[in-house]
Amino acid sequence: MHQTFDAALGINLLHANQTGADHNRAHFDQWGITCCNIMSSPGAGKTSLLEATLQHLSLKLKMAVIEGDMTTELDANRLRQYGVPVIAINTGRSCHLDAQMVAGGLDQFSEHYHPADFDLVLVENVGNLVCPAEFEVGEHYKVALLSVTEGEDKPLKYPIMFREADCLLITKTDLAPYVDADLERIISNVREINPDVAIFPVSAKTGAGLGDWFGWLEQVAPRPVLSKS
């Protein structure tokens, strides 16, 4: 059975991207940096989560952010106020970051900073529940966000994102009573797709559950906390 042209093209694109992702990961490994690829649909709270993360952990871990958006630097500017390097990448019509785009961001990063001095790079991917999960960027960990406002069935309808995730944050839990969201149902649906994923219900607004997320990040960071002068 012959593949269609579109199927063959998709396989070739993914193969080429994987080669680039492996190259990026080799750089991260050489520098001693852990990279987390943060993914979700638009509006699930990625930037708000990063704001809380940078505010809480920037004195413990030396972090940088690669910020992906189709247009504008609005989110990047929100994060720059926390005093960490933020490399903005506009993807234009592309609905995800790919390895080549992130490689360009790493070139900018290494021109202005000494990467080996850093512990953690957080990549905020473009808001999309499909493509970001298929195109690796060189990350060591995939982090998915799912807002309680999106519905309990999203893990079943968009399984690739949740199957690939190493960590899942159920966000905006403060809104759960107002949208009749059943957290246990959400968790059950996620576990059906990915039994081993770490799950943290959180609210960036109230701070509920964020300590578990911060602890997970400190655990996956490659160096002991407070190792930097």
Automatic annotation (TrEMBL):
Keyword Ribosomal protein: no
Gene3D superfamilies in alphabetical order: P-loop containing nucleotide triphosphate hydrolases
CDD domains assigned: HypB (cd05390)
Domain CobW/HypB/UreG nucleotide-binding: 37-200
One biological process term in Gene Ontology: protein maturation
Alphabetized UniProt keyword annotations: GTP-binding, Hydrolase, Metal-binding, Nickel, Nucleotide-binding, Zinc
InterPro entries noted in UniProt: CobW/HypB/UreG_nucleotide-bd, Hyd_mat_HypB, P-loop_NTPase
GO function terms (MF aspect): GTP binding; GTPase activity; nickel cation binding; zinc ion binding
SUPFAM superfamilies found in the cross-reference section: P-loop containing nucleoside triphosphate hydrolases
Family: Belongs to the SIMIBI class G3E GTPase family. HypB/HupM subfamily.
Name of the protein in question: Hydrogenase nickel incorporation protein HypB
Organism: Pseudocalidococcus azoricus BACA0444
